[in-house]
Design goal:
Blueprint (H helix, E strand, L loop, with lengths): L1 E6 L14 H7 L2 H6 L4 E7 L17 H20 L3 E5 L6 H11 L4 E5 L20 H5 L6 E6 L16 E6 L21 E6 L4 H9 L3 E4 H7 L1 H13 L6 E6 L21 H14 L2 E7 L9 H18 L7
Parallel strand pairs: 1-2, 1-3, 3-10, 4-7, 4-9, 7-8, 9-10
Antiparallel strand pairs: 5-6
Helix pairs in contact: 1-10, 3-4, 7-8, 8-9, 9-10
The structure holds ligand X8A and manganese (II) ion (MN) (3 copies).
Length: 335
Amino acid sequence: QSVAVLGAPFSQGQKRRGVEHGPKVIRDAGLIERLSGLDYAVHDFGDLTFHYPEMDEPYMNVKFPRTVGAATKKLSGAVSRAVGAGHTLVMLGGDHSLGIGSVAGHAQQCPDLCVIWVDAHADVNTPETSPSGNLHGQPVAFMLKELRDKVRRSQVRNVEDDSSTAVPSQLYLFVHVPTQVPDLPGFSWVKPFLSCRDLVYIGLRDVDPGEYHILKNLGIQYFTMRDIDRLGIQRVTEVALDHVLARKQRPIHLSFDIDAFDPSLAPATGTPVNGGLTYREGIYITEEVHNTGLLSVMDMVEVNPVVGSTRAAVEATASLAVDVIASSLGQTREG
Ligand SMILES: CN[C@](CCCC[B-](O)(O)O)(CCN1CCCCC1)C(=O)O
Ligand SMILES: [Mn+2]
Ligand SMILES: [Mn+2]
Ligand SMILES: [Mn+2]
């Protein structure tokens, strides 16, 4: 089994500088060595380079749409090629807007994939619902088929009129559900590919009102930190995995935002939220994902060394990221 590592030093999905240095600090924390120790053939693809369009004015209050669209398009090609070459892929961010490219590229190779989104946030704002306009809070919205134009047909009953000529019974009534994700400049390449039943969240604790409505209206399965308090991590992980795998075993895309952890463990991140995963809870999730034998691509995003207040804080966050990746790929606590 071979593992590929791909860095995506990208930060335009949010405002804070520094998250583009995520790949470097995670590598500096010994990622390649740790993976080599797990008897994988490890291929380090290095870091992508992104080209920044000169003009990239906000569109509908969305920041840097063309830059994010171009970066995620490039990432999707690289991810598709790596998966197509038979690698299990680790994508190092960079901010979570990269998830659009990572999951889209994976879906090109594995259209029946499921997504496990471990995060303090749902990242499912649309350009209309986003309070910030930052695209790292919107990636999931661009993946979901249920958030795009839907033409629904409902057959109109056959109506006889007095001239006894029946109205053609094939008269259709087109109901046009308003698009919730408009076409952004730079995003024309993104065709929605994921059904909301193939997605599950773990770790939510900071969800915007618009996101909450989307989660509820679409019936998306999610487990908040309160659910973990009530049910415990074992039950939450079991039900979450069952939700996406019971019907059908298929490749897993694990998109892991380091801010899923409590800020005391992962301080070097752009949008920290109190009351996050303990070390053991996070590691348990990744052990269970590994044990499915179905992990195909994982993202490790939002490590921002500039936000970390001290070197120790940065190193603790980067080291945690390495532990999460190694555990997802089979490192065990039992030897
Ligand atoms: C919760 N939604 C936020 C954060 C998105 C975090 C992205 B991630 O990749 O780190 O998960 C925050 C919106 N709030 C900002 C502060 C005021 C209230 C709204 C957004 O900007 O959409
Ligand atoms: Mn995120
Ligand atoms: Mn987050
Ligand atoms: Mn973030």
